[in-house]
Amino acid sequence: MNITLVNEKDVEWLNKVIKTEFPYTKFDTKKISEKINSLDFCILVARQENIQIGFCETELFPQNQEARLNAIFVEDAWRGRGIGKTLIERAINKCKHKRIQKIFLLVKEENIAARNLYKKTKFVFKKIHHKKIDSSTIEEWEQKI
């Protein structure tokens, strides 16, 4: 497996994944390309033999020395192999190099698999978030880095 920064060749795949897995975000290929070229985002892609198998997006807020893990995804056939954990660890390392001191995320309360992944990567529950996504209660988790 190889993990690199996402590039323009990945945009169509990312768009398909986001529309399927994160439809509430309403992103399109133009917005994805803008994120790829922005210093405020770090999007990593995991590949196996040049095929995209997962990604992780982090948004940086350097003025607050914070970052938010916006999305993590691994293709069904590749889950349970530590790819999500590796993507998150690499994203955290990128944040450390940008002098980020805290990374946080939002997760649906009923998403047990994601919550277990976040526990494995040393995130801790912080609070119930004030908004809902798809009528689901949202939790905020964080990690000091």
Helix content: 25-40%
Order of helices and strands: EHHEEEHEHEE
What's the number of helices?
Answer: 4
Name of the CATH architecture: 3-Layer(aba) Sandwich
- Tell me, rounded to a whole number, the average pLDDT: 94
Which structural class do the helices and strands define?
Answer: alpha+beta
CATH fold call? Aminopeptidase
Our measurement of the CA-to-CA distance between the termini, rounded to an integer number of angstroms, reads 25 Å
- Number of beta strands: 7
User: Quick one: overall form?
Assistant: globular
Highest CATH level, the class: Alpha Beta
Q: How many individual domains?
A: 1
Going across the major beta sheet, what is the strand order? Answer: 1-2-3-4-5-7-6
Binned strand content: 35-45%
Oligomer: single chain
- The residue ranges in which pLDDT falls below 50 over 5 or more consecutive positions are none
- Indicate the radius of gyration in whole angstroms: 14 Å
What's the CATH H-level superfamily name?
Gcn5-related N-acetyltransferase (GNAT)
Biggest beta sheet attributes: 7 strands, mixed
